[in-house]
Structures are given as structure tokens and as C-alpha cells.
Specification:
Radius of gyration: 24 Å
Helix content: 40-55%
Number of strands: 17
Bound molecules: pyridoxal-5'-phosphate
Strand order of the largest sheet: 4-12-11-10-9-5-6
Number of domains: 3
Largest sheet: 7 strands, mixed
Length: 462
């Protein structure tokens, strides 16, 4: 008698979802190789004691996710090693039975055709490829700088080739900014809740972070003014558009007020605009308003490709010598080949097409977010990969995270984002772009809504 594939279910979450995870896991482990036939709905349902409807739903979701393919009249088969890019990524990183919402990963897109096209055209130009294989200056190639600044201008950023420098992503840009401003071991102002990569850098370079209080538009001008009275600070790091983690977007008026204070106290501003191209409309970048004061950091990571590790910065003229030195001190230059690939994507329209796809995916996910959690104290701004959820009175962040964890859902606590000892609200960040597909996102959001509506954790009195 032929043995049929018999999955082990995790026992957590809806049955169809457990079966979907088991299929993904079996493919990942090679237990279900490409091309293998899955049992019929009826045979599998009988075998594991679930309804035929459960198997049908799991197979449907597996098909939607690109894991399997259904052939009319023949059955369902594991796809020939061609899982969708999102699936492929999650098959490598996901833990069966869990849904992660804790990391701001962009939705994985299929970049293979764009990559192939760009590399083929580069490979057909021997002079170009030979040039890309040499050392270049820290500033990079003039035509590449012109290409990036033209593209940024199309996206509303007042870039000029002379002020543009390349780097290996915004995190690397942040390191360069700290180095070129000579901030190692020095105090640095920032938002009270901030990007955890700043905390990592602060620990490494002994930066003393001072987090400032915020409202829904970001840091409060009065608080900045008070902090400046100390005369201790030379710079401030800000994420004015789609702030990480709170999603705050500074209005133009707030931007002008903050920049006026910075000018009065001669503070350099490091503007992290890593999410800035995701919304279709946004207030002007700080660098547009004060190019002589702002070091602007942008990146290909969120809208185009994180793996390419290409970022860019706009630097005031006064800091150009220090910027060249910081680049030479860290990597001598930024890989001209990677920059060229990015330039081809910009000129050929792929960079915009990928950005557009990312925006679309995020908009679809945001709609589900509002549907499930819109009735709670949720903050979300168009284009964002993440949302900020202030918890109802019965929940503290730690117990809510533990309750979600028990349901197999990973969230990021406000604690993770605190600058220094800044006191944190009872809130969590949800990254809607992290789950592999809509079905996982829906399931996680439904569970979170149920937890939020519940009476809270069970407490034991001693
Ligand atoms: C505010 C902020 N800055 C920088 C980064 C890192 O960007 P990159 O991948 O370009 O280094 C992130 C990534 O999540 C971020 O949220």
C-alpha cells in the first residue's frame, strides 16, 4: 500500500494554518521535494482527522503563496523550486507555527528579471565593466552621482551631485555621519523612542544619547530648546518622516520650528529618511529646508532592495573633506559595481517599478490592519511598514508581548526603541510587512484584536 505524506501539526492556531505551516516546513526540509504530489484533500483529511474544507483552505493558501500548484484533474504538486521571492525568503527564515511582526523588513519582491537585465547590459560594455573593477575616489564616479541626484530630485529631494556621497545603506550612513561630525564618545540628541540601530551604534561608539519627548509630529520644539540650554550638544539625529517606531510625520511647520532652534544653537541635523520615499505625498525633507545644516541619509533598502546595500547621503559643503576621510577610513570607497546596478535600475525604470510594488503591497496590508485594529489606539501613516499600538489599560507591554508570543506571534516592545533611559509607554510596534503573506497577517491581526478585547493577563496575587 502506498504511504501518504502525513504532517505533524503544531497544535497552535487554526487547523488550516497549522497545515499550511507543515507544508511549508516539509518543503523547506526537503521532505516534500519539488514536483512531488500532495495527497488528495479527502485522503489527507482522513489521515490527520480534519475536515476536507480545512485541507482545501490550506492547499488554497499554499497555492496563493507560490508553494504548490494545482493541476486540473491531476492534483496538487510542490512547485518546481520556484517559490515566490517572499515565500523563498520566509522558507529560509520562518519558524513553523509562528508569525513575526517585529521587524521592519520590506515585503520581498521578485527582482530577478531586473537584476538579469541590468547585469547583462553592464556585461556587454567591456570599458564600463573594466572601469567598475578599479579603485575609485571616496566620492565616487561623477556620472553615478549625477544619476542618483536626478532620481532623488524626481522624488522631491533637493539633491545635487556635488553634495551626494554613496554608502552601504542608511546604517552605514549613520556611522559615517557620526564619524565625520567627530561625535564618538560625545552627547547626541535624538527622539526619545528611536531606531534601535542608533542604540547599537551608541553602544559601540560610546555616544551618550539624550532622547527628547515627542507628540504625534515627533520631537517637541520646547523640549529641544530646553535641552540646548545645556550647551552640550553639537548634533541631533531625527527621523522626521514615518518615524521609527511611532510612525510620526513632522508637519512642515514643525520642521521649520525645529530647524530654527537648530540654527540658533548651531546644531548639525542628521536626517534619517530611510522610509521617506514610501509615501506618495510627504512634507519637504529637512535637507530641502536647510541644506547647509542637514546631513541627509537615504537608502535603497526599503523601497528597492536591502540586499544591494546601497545608500546615499547629502552633505553640506563645509563637511565634504571630513566625509571623504570617513569613507576612506571605513571602506576606501563604495562598490562602483553595486552603484552601477542601482543606476541602471534608476535609468531603466526598475527602481521606480519596485518602489511602486512595495507601496502597493503596503497599502493592501494597511487596509487589513485598519480593518482589524482600527478601533484601538493604533497609529499608522500611509506608506509605513509599521504601526504603533498603544495598549488598553488592562495590558502592559511585557504581558501583551508574552500573550502574543504564547499564540506564536512576535511583536516589538516600546522598550526596544528607548534612547538611553527614556521612559517608555505601554505600546508595541507591529511591522505589517514582516509576515510572508496576507493570510498570515490576517491571522496575526485577528489574534491581536482578540487579545486586545480580552480582559487582559491572568494575574496571581502573592
Ligand atoms: C530609521 C531607520 N534607519 C536606518 C535603517 C537601516 O537602513 P539600511 O538597510 O539602509 O542600512 C532602518 C531599517 O529598519 C531604519 O528603520
Amino acid at each position: 500500500m502506498m504511504t501518504i505524506w502525513t504532517p505533524t501539526l503544531s497544535g497552535r492556531g487554526p487547523l488550516y494554518r497549522q497545515l499550511l505551516d507543515a507544508i511549508r516546513h516539509a518543503i523547506q526540509q526537503g521532505e516534500l521535494p519539488a514536483g512531488s504530489k500532495l495527497p488528495t484533500h479527502r485522503a489527507l483529511a482522513d489521515r490527520i482527522g480534519v475536515t476536507v474544507g480545512t485541507v482545501t483552505r490550506a492547499y488554497h493558501e499554499a497555492e496563493q503563496s507560490g508553494l504548490i500548484t494545482a493541476r486540473v484533474g491531476s492534483g496538487s504538486y510542490v512547485r518546481d523550486g520556484k517559490a515566490s521571492p517572499t515565500e523563498a525568503w520566509h522558507m529560509r527564515h520562518a519558524t513553523p507555527g509562528r508569525i513575526e511582526l517585529w521587524q521592519n523588513l520590506p515585503v520581498a519582491l521578485d527582482r530577478s528579471a531586473a537584476f538579469q537585465q541590468a547585469m547583462q547590459t553592464i556585461a556587454q560594455e567591456p570599458d564600463c565593466i573594466n572601469g567598475l573593477m578599479e579603485y575609485d575616489s571616496a566620492e565616487g564616479n561623477a556620472s553615478q552621482r549625477a544619476c542618483f541626484s536626478a532620481w532623488l530630485q524626481q522624488h522631491g529631494i533637493d539633491a545635487t551631485p556635488e553634495r551626494l556621497y554613496f554608502n552601504y545603506g542608511a546604517q552605514n550612513g549613520l556611522l559615517l555621519a557620526v564619524m565625520l561630525l567627530g561625535l564618538s564618545g560625545q552627547p547626541l540628541l535624538c527622539e526619545g523612542l528611536t531606531y534601535p540601530g542608533l542604540n547599537t551604534l551608541a553602544q559601540t561608539l560610546k555616544l551618550q544619547l539624550r532622547g527628547l519627548p515627542m507628540d504625534e509630529e515627533g520631537i517637541l520644539p520646547d523640549a529641544l530648546e530646553r535641552a540646548c540650554q545645556d550647551g552640550l550638544y553639537r548634533a541631533i539625529y531625527l527621523i522626521p518622516t514615518l518615524q521609527n517606531p511611532t510612525t510620526a510625520v513632522m508637519s512642515r511647520q514643525r520642521r521649520e520650528a525645529i530647524l530654527a532652534i537648530c540654527a540658533r544653537h548651531q546644531l548639525w541635523v542628521i536626517e534619517d529618511d530611510v522610509h521617506g520615499l514610501l509615501p506618495t505625498e510627504r512634507p519637504p525633507a529637512l535637507v530641502n529646508l536647510a541644506p547647509e545644516r542637514v546631513i541627509y541619509l537615504g537608502s535603497f533598502s526599503k523601497g528597492t532592495s536591502a540586499g544591494l546595500r546601497i545608500g546615499y547621503m547629502l552633505v553640506p559643503a563645509e563637511l565634504h573633506a571630513a566625509t571623504g576621510q570617513a569613507i576612506r577610513a571605513t571602506s576606501w570607497m563604495v562598490s562602483p559595481l553595486l552603484i552601477e546596478l542601482a543606476c541602471r535600475w534608476m535609468r531603466g525604470g526598475d527602481a521606480d517599478a519596485l518602489l511602486q510594488q512595495q507601496r502597493l503591497q503596503l497599502a493592501q496590508r494597511a487596509e487589513r490592519l485598519q480593518h482589524h485594529l482600527g478601533a484601538f489606539a493604533l497609529r499608522y501613516a500611509a506608506g509605513s511598514m509599521h504601526a504603533w499600538l498603544e495598549l488598553p489599560a488592562q495590558w502592559r507591554a511585557a504581558s501583551f508581548i508574552a500573550a502574543a508570543e504564547a499564540e506564536g506571534i512576535g511583536l516589538a516592545s516600546a522598550e526596544l526603541f528607548a534612547a538611553g533611559h527614556f521612559s517608555t509607554p505601554q505600546a508595541v510596534r507591529l511591522s505589517i510587512s514582516h509576515p510572508p503573506d496576507m493570510a498570515s497577517l490576517e491571522q496575526a491581526l485577528t489574534t491581536l484584536a482578540r487579545l486586545l478585547e480580552s480582559s487582559g493577563p491572568h494575574t496571581t496575587l502573592l
